[in-house]
Amino acid sequence: xxxxxxxxxxxxxxxxxxxxxxxxxxxxxxxxxxxxxxxxxxxxxxxxxxxxxxxxxxxxxxxxxxxxxxxxxxxxxxxxxxxxxxxxxxxxxxxxxxxxxxxxxxxxxxxxxxxxxxxxxxxxxxxxxxxxxxxxxxxxxxxxxxxxxxxxxxxxxxxxxxxxxxxxxxxxxxxxxxxxxxxxxxxxxxxxxxxxxxxxxxxxxxxxxxxxxxxxxxxxxxxxxxxxxxxxxxxxxxxxxxxxxxxxxxxxxxxxxxxxxxxxxxxxxxxxxxxxxxxxxxxxxxxxxxxxxxxxxxxxxxxxxxxxxxxxxxxxxxxxxxxxxxxxxxxxxxxxxxxxxxxxxxxxxxxxxxxxxxxxxxx
Length: 363
Prior knowledge:
It contains six helices and 25 strands. By secondary structure, the protein is an alpha+beta fold.
């Protein structure tokens, strides 16, 4: 009986603490979220969506970190991946009680004349010209469907232009092009020329080639004999095509309206190149990094840009070498993902981006 009383007493002491654990965990989780996904002190009560708005721009009106949009919206991972269109005249409403954003539409009825009610409404349907995008679409549209990265195995197997009529060297719009290689049943292709090899800043290995997009071709007639060629017509031409240029199947029309979001797992990447062959990048320019789908990146992932802290001599301690902390200076929005390389739009920076800089999970 005495033993039982001791156990009962211990349980009675411990039970309130056990009950408090879930509440404490929730409080800690909320505190962690509030630190990184805090609302701006002067955040408005609502924002009426207008033509030209972007998810990034709207979230910047409410949040210190625009990439926290899905978290304060209360969206799960599948909702982030699926297009959720927001249209002009809808209302983004800040619910200060719950610390969440809500989407509504002003509708009349159900009350006094002139009263406006917020009706929750998120439409999931095919993209149309009125839906707002995650970031300024005009900055990246040319890069959504044109080939950017060609991996080495693709180079070896890609169909290639082997000749042009009448011994011509180059081809442009409406010209014929003779092609050899496995078309795999395709009829519409993009034409590219292998460009600059991209090297991983860490391993120094070539991880892909930045392709030069030349135009598009459409199949007119297939080869009639094993040693024959397929005949194509140049449908569009950005630059003149030549013998040796390669073909890549035209990808489906991209649907681009992924929510800005932090990666699910830790990402430690490096800047591989700055598009256009320049040495530095600023806001609204495009860069590539040495991580892709294999590292869990997807369209809409937001990363922080940093520069390695300098190693300097400590003048207060016999000039011993010390390393300063990495300096965070901007954010990167990933909009196209390959296996080992991704392309991103530089969104906000206080310094210039250079090759070798860090691209990591946002703090």
